[in-house]
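Example record

One chain of 445 residues, shown exactly as stored in the release files.
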Amino acid sequence: MWYVSTRGMAPRVDFEGALFSGYAPDGGLFMPEELPQLGIETLHQWSALSYPSLVKELCTLFIGPELIPKEVLNDLIDRAFSRFRHREVVHLSRLRNGLNVLELWHGATYAFKDLSLCCTAQFLQYFLEKKEKHITVVVGTSGDTGSAAIESVQGTKNIDIIVLLPKGHCTKIQELQMTTVLRENVHVFGVEGNSDELDEPIKAVFADVAFVKKHNLMSLNSINWARVLVQMAHHFFAYFRCAPSLDTCPLPPVEVVVPTGAAGNLAAGCIAQKMGLPIRLVAAVNHNDIIHRTVQQGDFSLSAAVEPTLASAMDIQVPYNMERIFWLLSGSDSQGTRTLMEQFERTQSMSLPKELHSKLSGAMTSESMSDEAITWTMSRCWEENQYLLCPHSAVAVGYHYQQMDRQQPSQVPRSCPGSRAEPRDPCRDPSSGAQGDALHPNAEG
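Predicted structure tokens for this chain:
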């Protein structure tokens, strides 16, 4: 399996090359040169698999036994998920009125980033130990990417990690998860500005190929292909748990509502679609709605400023993984993707060509949720189910309630991924919608 840059000006690399890269040297993101196509027979075989087994099957397709032998790969993935609190690793909760919440938060930091980062860290350590190398990971975070990345590599002798934390833009619990790890290989810095602003110097660093090679730098943000790869399993698992039957032809569709900020999980869903998984995607965002405007109007442009919301980790205006989606839906058009993204970087505004916008709106729909809608959704879910949502998960579940209240119930099963566990506070009434520092999971990517 070879990987190419979305902008088409960088040499192709294998999985190891993509894993150890941040941005490609030409500023693009790595994507598989070709996607494997999954037939009905394969989907039938996969339908009975556990979440870890689905990750193993997908990673086998995209890594290849010449890089990591299958038995070794399976051991790495088992090791990655060994500390998850739920025996299934990922669990689907079936609630009232057709609401299905996919619980992605049973890892060490209670956030969905644990799933992809723990696997990515195992892959890194495998190659590093094999070659006796050392790397420095650079991570910018708007929420729990930082804490999940730290958790995945803390204490590792051949990896140092530098986390840039936007002061005042993360919750207290997330700051504490990052700043209280007393390991020699963990370095956390508070920086001025929001997460989009701190992404700019990170991208500039990775554009300096000589500097990156000299200091063995890489990124664990969702620009890293390995994270997107593992997140594809979320969509397969949701589909197999929600599809009423796989005995029909064509297979029945399932709607997956993705709460998103940087669009990593959304890109994973688009790739799964292209591989043959019959899912319908809904991009659910907070008031920072660039993805919603892009899907609905083809308007990929920045607002005047990032607006702080209750779903703080989704307070993102530059959803860099949309570049992967544009490239994928344009038929791997690297030149067109490069032209669009360079225009966006130059002017902070870009209108999608009609054909690309048509393909995007055909691949997904979208919705934007206000803070009022988020608190109302959390309250309603508690009253109806005694199930406590985090604000980011509420962005997705809010879409489900909107459709119900408009008397537009889904004609197909619907899954709403849950981003993070919500700490239960016996002194707080969930139905009041009151907010505390603990109410901030993540859907950065």
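Notes: Residues 423-444 have pLDDT under 50 and may be disordered.
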